[in-house]
Amino acid sequence: TGKEIGVLKGHSSWVSSLVFCPDGKKLASSSADQTIRIWDVASRKCLDVLHGHRQEVWRLALLPDGKTLVSGAKDGRVCFWDASVMHARQPHITIPEDVVDWRFTPDSQSVITLDRQGQVTRWSGPEFRQQERLLDVGTNFISDAWNNVLSQDGRFLAFGSTNGVIQVWDVSGRVLWRQWTNTTDVVWPATFLANGNKLLTSSRAGNLNHEWDLRTGRELQSWQAVPFLNDIVAFGDEERYVEFGGNGAVRFRNTANDEVMETNLDLLEVHGAAVSPDGTLFAVASGLGFARVWNTANWQERTLVPGFPHSCDSAAFSPDGERLVVVGGTGLVRLWDTESWQGVFTLRGHGSWFFSTKFSPDGNVIGIMSREGSLHLWRAPSWAEIHAAEAKNSPAPDSDATGKMEGQQP
C-alpha cells in the first residue's frame, strides 16, 4: 500500500546502514551517533545497543551464520558482534523535575536539586527516589541555569537578577540568609568558596567580579573579569578558582594568599571546563566535538579527546583525579583514564546540551543535566554486586583428576 507502518526511534544522529536477520524478525541499524541498535521488527522496540566504535558507524553486514554482525566506521575500524546475545544495558537513574541546578551531598547518599518552580528537593535512597522538599523560593528569581548556584555541599543557594539583587538562602535552615545589591544591572552568582562562607558574583556593568563574605555581608574585593567571561570554576578545596573567557584568557586565583596566575590558550567554542582536584590539569569541552587538557604547571597540552559527533558540552574530574568524564551534546558520556588517556567506558543519556556534570564525593556516581531539565545519574556497582554478577554469569569450572582447574597455569 505504500503506507508507513512504524518508526524506530532511538538514534541521536543520521542512520547509515540497515540489515535484516534472515528470519526478518530483527533489524540492525548503524548510526553516526557511534552506536548500533538491534530492533524487534514486530514491536518496533530496541532490543540492544552496541557500543564500541569511537567514530561514526558507516556500514553493517551480516555473515551467513545469521548471527555475526560486522560493522565498519569512519576511522577504518571494523568490529565483529555476536548479534544473538543481548547485552544488559547500563542502568541509569533519571530525575525529570525540570532541574536548573543540582549538587551531591557530602556523604554521596543524596542529591539536592533546584527546579524551575523554585522547589529545592533532596533525593535519597539507593536509586535517589525518596523525595524530601526542603525549600520553596518561588519563581521570581528562576530564569535560567546561569542565574543561580548551589554551594558545593548543597547547604546554600544563591540567586542573581537583572536588577542587581543577589539573594542567598540557607537551604538547611529554610530561610533567606542574605540579600543585597551593588548595581542596577544584570548580576549573577558564580561559585561559593571557603566552605560556603564566601560567594563570587559577576556583574555585567563594567565586566566585574566580586568576592563577598557571607558571614558579614561585606564585599571583600572586586576586580576586572577576563574579557568575554565565559565561566568561573572552583577547585574542590574552595580556596582556588579559575575564570576563563571566550577569547582564550585563563586566570587562576588563590584566595588564601591572593596569588594570581594568567595565561592565554587557544580556546575555541568553550562549552564547559573543569580543574582536577590537585589543580594540575585544566580541561575544556569544545563545541567543535572534542575536549582538550593542559598541564597547569607549564601549560603544555596533555591530550586532545576526540570522537564526539556533534559537540562536547561539559567535563568533570573524579575526586581522586584519575578519571575525566566528557559529555557530548547527544548525551554521549565517556570516561577517560588521566594517566594513559585511554577510554574506560561509554554511557548514554537522553536529551541535548548537557552541562553541570559532576562526580559524587566518593567517586561512585556520575551525574549530568540536560537542557530539558532532566538529571541523569549512573551509580557504579559495589564490589558485592560485581562478585554476585560474576558468579551468576560464570559457568562452573571443569577440573581434572588432580583437582586443578582446566587451563589453569602453574
Kindly report how far apart the N and C termini lie: 67 Å
Structural class: mainly beta
Give the strand line-up of the largest sheet.
1-2-3-4
Low-confidence segments, given as residue ranges, are 398-410
Radius of gyration: 24 Å
What would you call the quaternary organization?
Answer: single chain
What does this structure look like?
The chain is mainly beta. Helices cover 3% and strands 50% of the residues. A four-stranded antiparallel β-sheet has the order 1-2-3-4, with no helix packed on it. It has a four-stranded antiparallel β-sheet with strand order 8-35-34-33, with no helix packed on it. Strands 9-10-11-12 form a four-stranded antiparallel β-sheet, with no helix packed on it. The radius of gyration is 24 Å and the shape is globular.
Quick synopsis:
Helices cover 3% and strands 50% of the residues. The protein has one helix at 383-393, and strands at residues 15-20, 26-31, 35-40, 45-51, 57-62, 68-73, 78-82, 93-95, 99-104, 111-115, 119-124, 130-136, 148-150, 156-159, 165-170, 175-181, 187-193, 198-203, 208-213, 218-224, 229-234, 240-245, 249-254, 259-264, 270-275, 281-286, 290-295, 300-305, 312-317, 323-328, 332-337, 343-348, 354-359, 365-370, 375-379.
